[in-house]
Amino acid sequence: MKALVQDEIGKPLDVLRLREIEVPTPGPGEVLVRMTTASINPGDFLFVEALYPEPKKPALPGQIAGNHGAGVVERVGAGVTIKPGTEVGFSYFDTWSEFAVVPEEWLIPLPRGMNPELGAQLVNLITAWDLLERSRAKPGDFLALTAGHSTVSILTAQYAASRGIKVISVVRRKTPDIDLLSYGSEHVIETSSPIGIRDAVLEITSGKGLNGVIDHVGGPLFPELVRSSALGSRIVVNGVLSSAPYELHHFDILMNLIEIVNYVYRYFFEPPTTDDRVYLQQLLAVSTILDLRVPVAGFFSLENFREAIEGTLDRPEEGKRFFSMRP
């Protein structure tokens, strides 16, 4: 089988190699998945560079890259209940390959015929849903989403719009590739605009401020969002796209009763529990009913991995890129 493999730690384009290796055999409790689609995410690059904590570290040499994807159950090991032919999505290891062995507990059965661009990135569907829940935004509230062009923010905007929440997407600059107003946002604020964030927010909200924020950026933008928030708002921190430091006075938080909480993907370290299965099926059902959409920049073969990764790194605003292993 073909797979993208690394033997050392480094930047993806420096250390990943396309190789022909043997198809693995599932052991007890394991499943062999014939991969159909795998998403390319910033987190996949962090894994290749060994920037995640244990146990999310590459096992060298010979680590297959990729942490998220979808496929069809090909074979099962002893003690497995899931049936061959079942379409599944998962977040684990080895997804940038034609086959992957995955412990059954990590697999999430997909609705038959689910769009590959959604099934291959359940991490983003689940994250978007959880972030919205954690924000506690209510119908009629103004909710700001930073990194507005990111897949997570675009999915969050659609979930929020379905609940009557007014979404304000915050981006560096608008792009002709993605019209955020067609993905659930009611307003778009550009940080490159001469109009400050706070002034733009107050104009949109008629002076009321933000009821909630989901921030994937950090940096100097964060205190601007805090100072643009209404009394009693909640800010959910989920990313650090900016490594720049910032200054924030406790007074801005204390006297405005602002609550700041964090979120880490719920299945980052542990697989779904038995109790989670009902939640996951409900989420997938709602996502199917809403007919969620994500901007797609393209599907790439494993052979064209350099083009796919370069595009993800250099032009993420064009949309999500995927590896397709379909024949």
TrEMBL record:
One Pfam family of this chain: ADH_zinc_N
Keywords of this entry: NADP, Oxidoreductase
Source domain of life: Bacteria
Enoyl reductase (ER) domain span: 11-237
Entries under SUPFAM superfamilies matching the protein: GroES-like (SSF50129), NAD(P)-binding Rossmann-fold domains (SSF51735)
InterPro entries found in the cross-reference section: ADH-like_C, ADH-like_N, ER, GroES-like_sf, NAD(P)-bd_dom_sf
Signal sequence extent: none
MF (Gene Ontology): NADPH binding; oxidoreductase activity, acting on NAD(P)H
Protein name: Enoyl reductase (ER) domain-containing protein
Organism encoding this protein: Sphingobium amiense
